[in-house]
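note to self: dont lose this again. the chain is below, predicted strucutre after it. 319 aa total, dont forget to put it in the shared folder this time
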Amino acid sequence: MYSRSLCITYPRLYRTTHTMAAETAQQPVTSTSTSTLWTAPTWIKSFYSKFPLVVLEQEDELDWKIRARDQSPQGCVLWIHPSSQSAHPHQRRWLSSSPASLRTQLLFLLRDTAATVPVTFREWSNEDSAPGGTLPALHLPSQDRLIPTDEVRGWLEGTYPLKGKGKELQGLPSQEAYDRALALSQLILGHLLPAYLASLPSQPSDFHLLFPVPPPLLAGLTTPLPASLTGDRRDIDLEEVVRKGVEAIEAVEVILSEQGEWAFGAKHPTSLDALIASHLYVVYSFPPISALRSAIESKPVLGEYIDRVLDYAEDRLHK
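---
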């Protein structure tokens, strides 16, 4: 598309002040009364041969605010990671492939409130270019306001409070159940989530922050070199991380087998069910040979639980 030979026309003033030395070693070139024609210097051709001019297509044809204008005045738009393309028995096309986005989707749909949250889910293909730089992000068209990832849960709690008594227990039947739910949450976020990320082709740069005790630097703690030179790579045993994830799946199966429809005997799905289902669902996107997928597919109780939660959420989505 672009030629590596360039012709540049310089004004005569430039020629008389900057090229007299070159003319003593070269034959004079044909000139006109207004300008002189020169071949592009070698360094310019060399530069463009290594760094060609590339024009990237605009990722989004319309502004993200414009695309959300078809919402109702009271509605909101949750921007999420795209859905998974890997087919599996529990797949729902409207669900995100990211545990963070999927969990937030279920938080909206499973919430037992007086009014259903009028939310629409929109996929954002490149998280770095998303509003605020992270996903999920919540847009309130009526207020022309964007709520970043860390504040979405707080907005939901304040705007759509839970019905009935025991709001501080998040819909769980007792304080004991609430305490057990906290322990199970730590198991999922501290073991199953890291195992999921460890099973991906590459891990995020902040992967080491998920561990209670940060893994040591790969370069060693005694190196005198600064982190800017050695990097922040950590010595993480990925196989051990995945093994703990398999153990977490086994523990979740035991806990859910002892309960009713919802975790810890709740009358309605809770935020705990959103957490469990979102982190189990994404495991099915791995190849069948994956240790995590093999573990979860060998436990039909978990598959039944996932379908029950997603069916409930899908009914709320279509209301």
